[in-house]
C-alpha cells in the first residue's frame, strides 16, 4: 500500500491536527477519496480536521441522532462519523478498502457491514435515505478505545444497527446532520431533487440542460 497526499484531501475545519499522510492503495482509490471529499465539502456537514473532543463539544447540546463527518485523527483512516446518542457522543471510523466505504465492524459480529462507493451513500443508508445503488452486504458496526463499532441485529420483524462501545450497546440512529456551513438555495433544491430521483417513480432528467445535469451529478445524495 502506497502513501500519497494531496492539498485537496484535507479538512476544511480547524487546524487541530497537522496534515497527516493518507494511505491510498491505487490511483483509482485516490480518485474515489478525492471525489468523496469534494462531495462532503458540498454537503454542509463535513467539519474537516476536528478532533474527537471538539466533536463531542459540538454535539453535546444536540438531540440524539445528530451527527457530523470529520477527518479521522488516526492516520490509518480518512473519515470518522461522530453521532450524539442517549449515552453521549460516539465516534465510528469509516473504513476505505476494496473500493468501498463502511463503518468499523464489530469483530464478534458474523454479518458483513454494508459497503458503499461514497461516504454520502453510507450516511444515507443509515438514515434510511438511500438515493441509488452502491451498497453491498448486510449489517454490522463497533467501537473501542474511544472509538465505536456497529453491528446489525434482528429485532422483531426488522433489523437495527447497534453501536458497541465500552461493553454497552446503543442504537445507531442518524436523524439530522450538524451544519458546518450554510447551504445555498441551489444546493437545497438539488438535494430535494435527488430525494425524488432515488424514489420509486423518479422523474426523467434527460430533457434537462447539460449544465443542470452536471450540477446534479456533482452531488447525487438526498442529504
From TrEMBL:
Pfam families: SH2, SOCS_box
Pathway entry: Protein modification; protein ubiquitination
Database matches in InterPro entries: SH2 (IPR000980), SH2_dom_sf (IPR036860), SOCS_box (IPR001496), SOCS_box-like_dom_sf (IPR036036)
Database matches in Gene3D superfamilies: SH2 domain (3.30.505.10), SOCS box (1.10.750.20)
GO cellular component: phosphatidylinositol 3-kinase complex
Domain SOCS box, first and last residues per copy: 173-222
A GO molecular-function descriptor: 1-phosphatidylinositol-3-kinase regulator activity
GO biological process, one term: phosphatidylinositol phosphate biosynthetic process
Domain SH2: 45-126
Keyword field: Growth regulation, SH2 domain, Signal transduction inhibitor, Ubl conjugation pathway
Protein name according to UniProt: Suppressor of cytokine signaling 3
Species lineage: Eukaryota, Metazoa, Chordata, Craniata, Vertebrata
Amino acid at each position: 500500500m502506497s502513501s500519497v497526499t494531496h492539498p485537496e484531501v484535507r479538512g476544511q475545519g480547524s487546524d487541530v491536527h497537522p496534515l497527516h499522510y493518507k494511505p491510498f492503495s491505487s490511483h483509482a482509490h485516490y480518485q474515489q477519496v478525492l471525489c468523496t471529499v469534494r462531495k462532503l465539502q458540498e454537503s454542509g456537514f463535513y467539519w474537516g480536521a476536528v478532533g474527537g473532543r471538539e466533536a463531542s463539544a459540538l454535539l453535546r447540546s444536540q438531540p440524539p441522532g445528530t451527527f457530523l463527518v470529520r477527518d479521522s485523527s488516526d492516520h490509518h483512516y480518512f473519515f470518522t462519523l461522530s453521532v450524539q446518542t442517549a449515552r453521549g457522543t460516539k465516534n465510528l471510523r469509516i473504513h476505505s478498502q476494496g473500493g468501498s466505504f463502511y463503518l468499523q465492524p464489530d469483530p464478534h459480529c458474523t454479518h458483513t457491514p454494508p459497503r458503499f462507493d461514497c461516504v454520502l451513500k453510507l450516511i444515507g443508508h443509515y438514515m434510511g435515505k438511500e438515493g441509488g445503488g452502491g451498497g453491498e452486504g448486510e449489517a454490522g458496526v463497533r467501537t473501542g478505545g474511544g472509538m465505536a463499532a456497529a453491528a446489525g441485529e434482528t429485532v422483531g420483524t426488522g433489523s437495527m444497527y447497534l453501536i458497541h462501545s465500552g461493553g454497552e450497546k446503543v442504537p445507531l440512529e442518524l436523524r439530522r446532520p450538524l451544519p458546518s456551513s450554510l447551504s445555498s438555495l441551489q444546493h437545497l433544491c438539488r438535494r430535494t431533487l435527488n430525494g425524488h430521483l432515488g424514489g420509486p417513480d423518479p422523474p426523467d432528467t434527460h430533457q434537462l440542460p447539460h449544465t443542470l445535469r452536471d450540477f446534479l451529478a456533482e452531488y447525487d445524495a438526498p442529504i
